[in-house]
Specification:
- This protein is an all-alpha fold.
- It has one domain: Orthogonal Bundle (ABC transporter involved in vitamin B12 uptake, BtuC), CATH 1.10.3470.
- It is built from twelve helices and two strands; from the N terminus they run H-H-H-H-E-E-H-H-H-H-H-H-H-H.
- The chain has helices at about 5-30, 35-60, 75-100, 105-130, 155-175, 180-190, 190-195, 200-225, 230-235, 235-245, 250-270, 280-290, and strands at about 145, 150.
- A two-stranded antiparallel ribbon has the order 1-2.
- A hairpin with a 2-residue loop joins strand 1 and strand 2 (about 150).
- Helix 1 (about 5-30) packs across helix 10 (about 235-245), helix 2 (about 35-60) runs antiparallel to helix 3 (about 75-100) and helix 3 (about 75-100) crosses helix 8.
- The longest helix has 30 residues, at about 75-100.
- The radius of gyration is 19 Å and the shape is globular.
Length: about 300
């Protein structure tokens, strides 16, 4: 039995899951659906590309791949730099737009504002870098046979491992630290959390930083396995929301599981009925979950 679609789906799901965590954090703490999350993915990829290119110039224009991988230390350092840069972009967007609307506008107004911000960020990205695709590396890799008809490249296995590390680190942050407990308190009841002495403004800042950083990691994964384009985040927007809703809004593990479900379902659709239908899979799963269990797999009933 050929299970190649499962391996492909897990990789796609890992990319979607990281971005969906930002969606679910924003919704559970700030109470609105942020359509700009997809653009953070694209901006994160381009931030990493700029940093990696600059490091390559400093190193003499070349970057030696690490072992069996197609990338070198330059890309790893670029990811470390680009994650806080993307978080700062998300925080700056909140300062310039969302913070001014939170106290005086309705939720639907903020959602529409996020949609407008998404279009502006995407257009600016296309203006700065054009619509031509870019690449982190052009090194070719040979897929390794893993059994049951499954093949994967070293890059793909490394990226799945990176997802696991980031999700584990986020879980520890949310469950074992003071800021994590504050975030969970604000998610449950912002007014009560403020009365109890929680610094809600700090929680909001950390939420944006985390969402942007994880979106950057997702963007680097997409850029390394496919290509970097200004519309790469927009193409992932529906799968991001489908994954967040499937897993249950407010659940970090749920967002990752939802991303894996969407990724495997898309890969299965591409392998059976054709790649042209994979874009509709996320929409079908989203509608099905809303009809069967509106709170999602890990969502709590209110």
């Amino acid at each position: 039995m050929n299970l190649q679609f499962v391996a492909d789906g897990v990789l796609t799901g890992a990319m979607i899951g990281l971005g969906a965590i930002g969606v679910t954090l924003t919704y559970s703490i700030l109470r609105f659906a942020n359509f700009a999350q997809g653009e953070f993915i694209a901006w994160g990829a381009y931030f990493a590309l700029l940093v990696a290119t600059a490091l390559g110039w400093l190193a003499g224009g070349s970057s030696t791949p690490i072992g069996p991988f197609s990338f070198g230390w330059g890309l790893m350092l670029a990811l470390i730099v680009a994650m806080p840069l993307t978080g700062a972009l998300a925080l700056g967007l909140d300062w310039a737009l969302f913070a001014r609307l939170r106290e005086k506008a309705s939720s639907i107004t903020i959602v529409i504002a996020s949609f407008g911000a998404s279009m502006a960020l995407r257009s600016l990205l296309e203006f700065l870098f054009t619509s031509r695709p870019a690449y982190f590396t052009r090194e070719l890799q040979i897929a390794i046979r893993l059994g049951w008809g499954v093949r994967a490249t070293p890059d793909q296995m490394a990226l799945v491992g990176l997802t696991a590390i980031l999700v584990l680190a986020l879980h520890v942050l949310l469950s074992r630290t003071q800021i994590g407990r504050s975030m969970r308190a604000v998610s449950e009841n912002p007014a009560l959390a403020r009365v109890a002495g929680v610094d809600v403004d700090q929680v909001v800042r950390v939420t944006w930083l985390l969402g942007g950083a994880l979106a950057c990691a997702s963007g680097v994964m997409v850029g390394l396995t496919v290509q970097i384009r200004p519309f790469m985040g927009f193409d992932l927007l529906l799968p991001l929301f489908a994954a967040a809703i499937l897993g249950g809004i407010g659940s970090v593990p749920g967002a990752l599981v939802g991303g894996l479900i969407v990724g495997v379902a898309e890969a299965a659709a591409a392998a059976t009925v054709g790649a042209q239908w994979r874009a509709g899979v996320a929409f079908v799963l989203l509608i099905a979950m809303l009809l069967i269990r509106p709170t999602g797999l890990f969502g709590a009933r209110e």
